Amino acid sequence: SITEKGSSVKKNWQGNALQIVLGNTRRYAAVVEMTPDAYIDDGLLDVCVITAGEPLSTLGQISSLLLRREPDNQTSEFFRGTHITLRVPASINLQLDGSAVKLNEYLGKADRDELQRAQDKEHVMVTYEFEALPRVLEVAFPQTYNNTLFERSSDYILPQTAEPQASTSDADTSQHNGASAGREQQSPGDSEQVKELLKKGRKVTVVGTAMLSEKKHRYILAGNTTKVITGEIKPVAIVIDKHTALLKRTGEPASVVEVRQLPEGAEVVVEGKKSKRGVIHATRAMV
C-alpha cells in the first residue's frame, strides 16, 4: 500500500505489484526514465508502480523500457507527494541507490528478534516512510548544463561569476597563505614537488566548483578521474580547505581564488585519501 501525506490518495495492491520505484529525479541507472515527470527541485517525490499483467502486456512493458526508455502507461501507475508511506511484506527487498538495504540494521532489538522468530516473513508487514526535504543539498555541476532535471533552475542557480571578487579574493588569498606558512615552504619553480605530485597524484578533470563554507574557506571540486587499470571514468569530489597545500604547475604556491576560477575541463592533480563514496580530502593539489 502507498499513502501520500496531505492527500486522500491511498492505493493497495494484493500480490500484483512487480516493482515500485521511488525517486526525486526521472533518471534511473542513467538509462531509463522511470518517473518521467520528476524534477529535482519541485519539493515532491515521484513513485512509479509497475503492476503484473498478462504475458502480452509484460512484453509491451519490456519493449517500452527498451525503446522509449520509460514505463508503459498500460501497466504502470504514477504518484507524487511530499511524504510517501510504503507498506510491504518483510520478504520484499529494498534497494537504496542500487545497494541492498538490510532490514535488520534498521530495527530495534525487540523487532529484530520478533522478525527472526517469524516463520513466514510474507505475513510480517514493514512500513517505510520517505519525505522530501527541499534545498538540503548543495551541488556543483557544469555551467554548460542545460538544467533539464530542474524545474526552476533559472530562479536561483547563480553562475560562478556572481561571487564577489575583490575583497573576498584578497581575504581568501591571505588566509590560505597564512595557513600554509607552517608547512614546508615551496620555492618558485620547484620542479621536484611538481614531478612528485604528477607521479603520485590522481588526475581529475574539473566539472564544476562550489563553496562549502565561506568562513572555513572550504571548497569542493566536482570532476571525473580515469582508473589506470581499467580505463573506467569515475566521478569524484575534491574537498579543499585550509589544510590543503595548493601548487601551480610552475611549483609556486597557488590560492583558493585560482581554485574557484577553474573552468570546466581544467585538469587538477590531487593527493589525499579517497572515501568509498568518491570524496577526496586533498592534502596537496596542483592547479
Describe this structure as you would to a colleague.
The protein is of the alpha+beta class and 287 residues long. It has helices at 55-67, 109-117, 153-156, 166-179, 191-200, 256-260; strands at 2-4, 10-11, 17-23, 27-28, 32-33, 45-51, 76-81, 83-89, 94-96, 99-101, 125-131, 202-213, 218-226, 233-240, 245-247, 267-274, 279-286. It has a five-stranded mixed barrel with strand order 12-13-14-17-16. A four-stranded antiparallel beta sheet has the order 2-1-8-11, with no helix packed on it. A three-stranded antiparallel beta sheet has the order 3-6-7, with no helix packed on it. Strand 1 and strand 2 (10-11) form a beta hairpin. The longest helix has 14 residues, at 166-179. It is elongated and about 70 Å long. It starts with a strand and ends with a strand. Residues 156-189 have low confidence and may be disordered.
Ordered list of secondary-structure elements with their pairings:
Layout: E1 2-4, E2 10-11, E3 17-23, E4 27-28, E5 32-33, E6 45-51, H1 55-67, E7 76-81, E8 83-89, E9 94-96, E10 99-101, H2 109-117, E11 125-131, H3 153-156, H4 166-179, H5 191-200, E12 202-213, E13 218-226, E14 233-240, E15 245-247, H6 256-260, E16 267-274, E17 279-286
Parallel strand pairs: 14-17, 15-17
Antiparallel strand pairs: 1-2, 1-8, 3-6, 4-5, 6-7, 8-11, 9-10, 12-13, 12-16, 13-14, 16-17
Level of helix content?
10-25%
Encode the helix/strand succession as letters: EEEEEEHEEEEHEHHHEEEEHEE
Number of distinct helices: 6
Give the strand tally: 17
Shape: elongated
